[in-house]
């Protein structure tokens, strides 16, 4: 795939420590591009809007909690329609591609990009690329119109199909050039956005008037900078159905244990928020928080204690939790999927067997354990109302940005305001739960579980700089 290390950064410095991490613009490498009045000012839907356009200097602050002596800090360019656009509507030939795993809301984003281009800007030539990145050069395309996409938000998955890998940058840009495409909308997670950055670089090197806009997608909510990713609210809501089923099973029988595995390869946001939302969970295990099984203060001891207290319990596990405890399965620990993600062992199934074996071996108590893995049910459902609204804002922000000539950016909310974020900031790291943060403390308080951290581990985590902003 290559890498995006050569991405040219645009940084604007102002007074009092103000820093704007700007996104590229077509005029950065194509001088003297003509501009045109934004057709939104003639759009009936916007006739009652007091302010059509975003001010050219508007920016969104990455850090919202500051002290009186704090510098003004890092900002991103605010998303929204501009007074001037760099494309004539009749000349726009857009395409949309979805990559990576499924996520609630994909079809809503597709629908709103199509409807936004058509209804707001009068764009009628919109292609859907079939089958992810490799679809640019090996698959058929789909002509997308508002009629075609009218009801797709009611379905799960993506009508365009998806795949992992298949990224041949030169072939992709050749296809974009050969088809006369001048706006590319790429929906996908961190690997997909890295690919989008490389595509942008190739387009820039060729001097093509093609805007590349990313829409960040990950059900795990592990994309940095943005407040949250689409599909996350739906995933948490659906996860609670599985937790409720586990709770019903567990409390209906003596010493019942319900184990629920939720998505979260490297981070435990779904498990954490589903636990807080449910209130029926006795123990939440996530990749960011180490734990151990045997001995004083271990998981087995806590399970025994909770069963003696309540007669049942529910354990929620993020899929990436406890991988270090599976050292005996090292033969597959270093394998990767087509997107470069590490293939994980099924820790939920493994720990379920270990819990059964532990209590059977000690003859302390007979337990009845039920294991529930709703992973693919969760990611295949349509998005809920909250995510549908969010997907609409994401899609329209991306459309406004591309029409205004911005390129090489990802659209997303920062502190509640939608902004254009450079690809390098999206790709620089993965967002994770900070276990020394108050939100994780709320989970421990809700479940009344131990942290499972030794004194040395706790001291180490407190010394480390948080990898994401502290949440109130």
Automatic annotation (TrEMBL):
Q: Which gene encodes it?
A: PFK
Q: Which organism is it from?
A: Citrus clementina (Clementine)
The entry assigns this protein to a family as follows: Belongs to the phosphofructokinase type A (PFKA) family. PPi-dependent PFK group II subfamily. Atypical ATP-dependent clade 'X' sub-subfamily.
> Which leading EC class covers this enzyme?
transferase
Q: Which residues bind Mg(2+)?
A: 190
- Cross-referenced SUPFAM superfamilies, in alphabetical order? Phosphofructokinase (SSF53784)
Protein name (Swiss-Prot/TrEMBL): ATP-dependent 6-phosphofructokinase
Activity regulation text: Allosterically activated by AMP.
Primary location class: cytoplasm
**Chain positions of site Important for substrate specificity:** 191
Keywords assigned: Allosteric enzyme, ATP-binding, Cytoplasm, Glycolysis, Kinase, Magnesium, Metal-binding, Nucleotide-binding, Transferase
| Cofactor (UniProt) | Mg(2+)
Which cellular compartments is it found in?
Answer: Cytoplasm
Q: What are the GO cellular component annotations?
A: cytoplasm
